[in-house]
Write a structure and sequence with these properties.
Layout lengths: L2 E6 L6 H14 L4 E5 L2 E2 L8 H9 L3 E4 L2 E2 L5 H8 L6 H12 L4 E9 L11 H8 L3 E5 L5 H14 L4 E9 L5 H14 L3 E6 L7 H7 L14 H8 L7
Helix pairs in contact: 1-2, 4-5, 6-7
Length: 243
């Protein structure tokens, strides 16, 4: 798995922090890591983008972004409004392949969800993943509403014959409600892929050394971690009679 594409079921689901955790776990396992942000929006010149945030949290990664647009919009819209060239899926694939020649693992982080448009032609992160023949990791929210968006994302990946590696919950609350606890069993069922981790809420606010030490405990062995889905589910299981 030299390239892993990371997408979310929407915005603000913990995609960047999850990318940082995957990078940190891989680094701890002795792998060299590059992070590629396909299109950074809503960040001005000199401000820290998502790839740089991953490097801050995870450590010694090669951080690259292909394009930056100032307004917090879908990349295609942001590019058009800024009068700047859009990112094309083939450019994402070419950049990732070049990084993969020099690193053990390349993490390609999208913007928003899987089908957010990069350009006027409708190019998306899914198109880049298909060109790369790379698996996709889906970051989902924990609570009510996540089953629908996760299943829609998983169905689109299957329709395009793209491998869905699994699902990670981007922010697990300290006191989970009934919906979130039930979703631990339901998420892998609707996704048709395993649950590969759960990051605690506020993980991105940890000091980087603490983040790096803890990251492997949030992710399954498939992502170079030690997290166990069955044990986590047992600990967080819903009350009897509400399973």
């Amino acid at each position: 798995m030299p390239v892993l594409v990371i997408t979310g079921t929407g915005t603000e689901v913990g995609k960047t922090v999850t990318t940082a955790a995957v990078a940190a776990a891989a680094l701890a396992a002795g792998r060299s890591v590059a992070v590629l942000k396909a299109a950074q929006t809503g960040v001005g010149p000199g401000e820290r983008g998502d790839a740089e945030e991953v490097a801050r949290l995870a450590g010694a990664v090669t951080a690259t972004e292909l394009a930056r647009y100032p307004e917090p919009l879908a990349p295609g819209t942001a590019a058009r409004r800024a009068g700047l060239a859009p990112v094309r899926p083939y450019e994402v694939a070419e950049a990732a392949a070049k990084l993969a020649a020099e690193h053990d693992l390349v993490l390609v982080e999208g913007a928003g969800g899987l089908l957010v448009r990069f350009d006027a032609a409708g190019g998306t992160l899914a198109d880049a993943a298909r060109l790369l023949e790379a698996p996709v990791l889906v970051v989902a929210s924990a609570g009510l509403g996540t089953l629908n968006t996760t299943e829609l994302t998983a169905r689109e990946l299957r329709f395009r014959a793209i491998e869905l590696l699994g699902v990670v919950i981007g922010s697990w609350p300290g006191s989970a409600d009934l919906a979130a606890r039930c979703n631990l069993a339901d998420l892998p069922e609707v996704a048709g892929a395993p649950l590969l981790g759960a990051l605690p809420a506020g993980a991105g606010a940890l000091p980087p050394p603490d983040f790096r030490r803890a990251a492997p405990t949030w992710l399954s062995p498939r992502l170079a971690g030690t997290w166990d889905a069955a044990s986590f589910h047992t600990h967080e299981a819903p009350p009897a009679g509400h399973a």
